[in-house]
Amino acid sequence: MWRWIESVYERLDADAKERVSVEVSNDEGKSPQFHGFDGNEEGEYLGVARMLIDHLDRFAEFSGRDLNTHHNTTGHYESMLAAFERVKEARSLGLYERADADDLIAVLNAPYEPLSLTD
Questions:
Q1: Structural domain spans, the chain
Q2: Which of 36, 46, 75, 108 could disulfide-link 113, Cβ–Cβ 3.0 to 4.6 Å?
Q3: CA separation (Å) from 88 to 25, 37, 64, 85?
Q4: Terminal CA-to-CA distance of the chain, rounded, Å?
Q5: 10-residue averages of pLDDT along the chain (119 residues)
Q6: CATH T-level assignment (fold) for domain 2-108
Q7: Predicted local distance difference test score (pLDDT) of residue 17
Q8: Which residue, 78, 103, 76, is CA-closest to 11?
Q9: Residues 6+ apart with CB under 8 A from 1
């Protein structure tokens, strides 16, 4: 999902990027980027992300990032993933080629819903 978000954002022209910045209700609209997971509360997710990126050479575009957000992200990512799945279904084979600012805004504006990892 984050690979798609960053790729689509990068492809947008300046006007579309400005629209994303204005219409996305959280800080992600200014420069959408995968920031990782909370090292204290989401350590298992952070460890998997670091293993995939730093040791298995997957998702090289995220290499060199700190990846410790210092705040919970899994609830928000889960909401974003549900919105991404809807976009994915609507775009089918054109997920990267035909995605636009509207699609990106829909995913980035997914409600922030913190998950309790102890439940």
A1: 2-108
A2: 75
A3: 22, 24, 28, 5
A4: 25
A5: 94 96 87 94 96 94 94 92 91 78 94 60
A6: yfbu gene product, domain 2 (1.10.3190)
A7: 95
A8: 103
A9: 77, 80, 81, 84, 107
